[in-house]
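User: Batch of two.

Assistant: Item 1 of 2:
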Amino acid sequence: MKLLYCALYYLVLGAASFVLGRLLPKNWFDCRAFPYRIYSFEPELYHRLHVKQWQNKLPDMSRIFPKLMPPKKITADYSERLPRMLQETCVAEFIHVLLSILGFGAVFIWPGVWGWVIAIVYFLGGNLPFIIIQRYNRPRLQRLEDGTRKHGGNIQK
């Protein structure tokens, strides 16, 4: 029964966080400022974790709810969308960090070892990979944005 309560707790957390992520003002998030800026050690870490190979195998809310989430595809108008895409990576990271913290609420629902096991599995499987993906993709989007600014909105191939 405690497992069911934990599952319901995570379901409610997920739904509430989705709504929160859509409602948060995107201009609150600056991808070049703490805590969203990328540190020099991160690219090597993500390379060692082989993020490029597994990131597209995980669920993506923009594919699940395409009408509610901005598309991530690079299309003809991407240079106009890049600032928003960068903010969305910050929002997604913020939401997953928040879910990681609140996910430890399972310990109060199911005190003891099993509550901790569920909370840790939820963090490691349900949030940490998505935080890593946002932080992995952000520098590439920043370089694209910098390139479009440098070339007056056009990327030279």
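Item 2 of 2:
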Amino acid sequence: MKSQFLTIALGAAAAALGVGLGALVTFGVSAAPFAWVPNEKSGTMSIIDVATDTVVGEAAVGKRPRGTAASTDGKTLYVSDQPANAVQVVDVAARKVTDTIVLGESPEGVYRSPDGRWVTVAVEEDNSVHFISTATGKREFQVKTQGTNPEHAVFSPDSKWVYVSAEEAEDVDIIDVAARKQVAAVKVGKRPRGIGFTPDGKLAYVACELANQVHVIDTAARKVVAVIPAGVRSNGVAVHPAGKLVFITNGADGSVSVIDVASQKISKTIAVGQRPWNMAISPDGKKLYVANGRSNSVSVIDTEKLEKITDIKVGDTPWGVFIP
């Protein structure tokens, strides 16, 4: 009898949320996390169950969702919405927007500090990085950057520094979070985009799109210590949690390059969809999810075998993948 009542209750809740009973059960029972995929032209976020690699739901989030970050408890998402010049605050359980934080024109990359205190938003048209306090839900300050048209503003693992890439630049700008100002810039290749740190924070990998290279920065010395040839229009960066592999998307090649950290060389290249962009790795490190902007899909890669497992259809023009 209890199971019957549970089924009825779940069915009613699923109907209220506009999803199937199976999807609701998956949300409530599965221990696996979910991957959120912002679809720029659809104005939606596709929700993928990483246990089954299937889309189990969709949420309407602004008009052009792009960068995404989450609170430390995973209950809240912060999603940049380019036409609104704002970040949309999303309740994960309800899958709906609960607040809007207005910023400057054309916000893009969104990142949360590892200590959970801050969310950064790279705002392209005012050449600055905005800092949102997760405690107050308000923008607390912004830092002007040397580079023009900033896209990503990524925290170091110790939360002390933010590395900023700008599309119209050949440098990575470094912000001192405590001082609330830019304190350095490191020369890299033309049009730096994705940035990823090794878990120990000693190295930062920067994909330079127009140079077709990855520049490796020694964070203590603040200088480039390796330049790795990549595919055509290298842009996205994802570092494996074990710190031994770095993944780079090559937008024009439709591929992902795998960098071996020990040798600082590409060990393998894996074909994915058209115009691969930003990525995310599952918390257990076993799968890499790659957004393919022109294929309207997400490719899933086995990070141990270094082989593509499947492609998942999502919305129109996925910008990236985020796993809270």
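The radius of gyration is 19 Å.
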